[in-house]
Amino acid sequence: MSTDEGDERYGERYVPAGTAADGPYALRLDPGGPGREYTGLRVVELAPGAAHSFTTGDAEWIVLPLEGGCTVTVDGAFFELLGRENVFSGVSDFAYVPRDARAQIASGAGGRFALAGAKCERRLPARYGPAPEVPVELRGSGPCSRQINNFAAADVFDCDRLIAVEVLTPGGNWSSYPPHKHDEHRPGTESELEEIYYFEIERGGLGYHRVSPSRPGGTEVLAEVRDGDAVLIPDGWHGPSIAPPGRTMYYLNVMAGPGPGRRWLIRDHPDHRWIRDTWPGQPVDPRLPLYEAPRSAPGTRTAPGRPAASGPAARPPEEEDR
Fold first, then answer.
1. Radius of gyration of the chain from Cα atoms?
2. What are phi and psi of 53, to 5 degrees?
3. How many other β-carbons are positioned within 10 Å of the β-carbon of residue 106?
4. What is the pLDDT of residue 295?
5. What is residue 106's predicted lDDT score, i.e. its pLDDT?
6. Backbone angles phi, psi at 229, to 5 degrees
């Protein structure tokens, strides 16, 4: 089934696992389809010893291991991604692939790899993102506690348009809460960014995700989400994302938009903004962090395709809330 056929069948916004599969891709949502003018997301599954080549077109892409490691070859550069066992086990390194390029992903042991993309104008150089340099941040408190891996946040890793982060929500907690939006350009207050959520639930569980309209006829989703499901958010108040008791929820957020600059500014739903006022009186969930970024030995230097030394994880400006 093609991507757009899958979107049409499920109201264009909720994309259950398998409905947007295409060849080697378990999920293929390229920029320019319904609900995703600027953003794209692919998940490629490689058998041991297999390789996959692709052209980037007018979009920039980040290759992010979800399960396993791989090599990425582009523009004469070769990056070895050590990857991880799975998204619940640790932070991963990654590779940036520019627009107007041909790239290859190869994996000796096999695995699953996300390609997070966005339409862009500038052609930036191909680069390696070391796992030790990924800021791991805790947000919220009490039952709203969650962990964010800011691997390609706006102030962390340089892209032209793409913004991408990972969120891990312990079982029973709510994230992407209070509901918030970023579908209007309001200087200094709100960015115009569409978004894709890609979900995995620990040990095959299920969770729930809500999007409510911010304008007449806007996006509305109430979905039971499982491994491999995606939700497209071109507009609307999104949240909460609810993790089931006993199962951690993971989601990959991919964002881009037409606005000037590359900023991630959000506006809370006025009916739910009050929940933030309760957080200072509650501790962060003691289960967090689920893991931290790996640390390299002091004095080691960055090398393409290898982890690099890093100080304590930086905390980006609190411009948004997943």
1. 18
2. -105, 145
3. 14
4. 87
5. 98
6. -75, 155
Q: Are 194 and 257 in contact (CB under 8 A)?
A: yes
Classified as helix, coil or strand, 207 is: strand
Residue 276 CB coordination number (10 Å)? 15
Q: What dihedral angle (degrees, nearest 10) is formed by the CA atoms of 60, 65, 70, 75?
A: 10
For the chain, helix (H) and strand (E) counts, in that order, are: 1, 24
In eight-state DSSP terms, residue 124 is: P
pLDDT digits (tens, 9 = 90+) for 203-228: 989 999 999 999 999 999 999 999 99
Helix, strand or coil for residue 308? coil
Nearest to 217 by CA among 6, 13, 8: 13
Write out residues in the chain with pLDDT < 70, as ranges: 1-11, 297-322
> Is the N-terminal amide bond of 270 cis, ω within 30° of 0?
no
CA 169, CA 186: separation in Å to the nearest integer? 29
From CA 92, how far away is CA 87, in angstroms rounded? 8
Q: What are phi and psi of 2, to 5 degrees?
A: -75, 165
* CA atoms lying within 13 Å on the CB side of residue 321: 25
Retrieve residue 37's tokens. 């003018």
Residue 69, amino acid: G
CA 10, 12, 13, 16 torsion: positive or negative? positive
Q: What was the pLDDT predicted at 290?
A: 97
**Both structure tokens of 10:** 């499920």
Secondary structure class of 199 (helix, strand, coil): strand
Structure tokens of 160?
């032209």
Encode pLDDT of 225-273 as tens digits. Answer: 999 999 999 999 999 999 999 999 999 999 999 977 898 899 999 999 9
Give yes or no for a contact between 68 and 117, defined as CB atoms under 8 angstroms apart: no
Classify residue 134 as exposed, middle or buried by CB count within 10 Å of its CB (0-12, 13-18, 19+).
buried
What pLDDT does residue 11 have?
55
87 neighbors 200 (Cβ within 8 angstroms): yes
Output the six-digit token pair for 26. Answer: 């378990």
pLDDT (0 to 100) of residue 102:
97
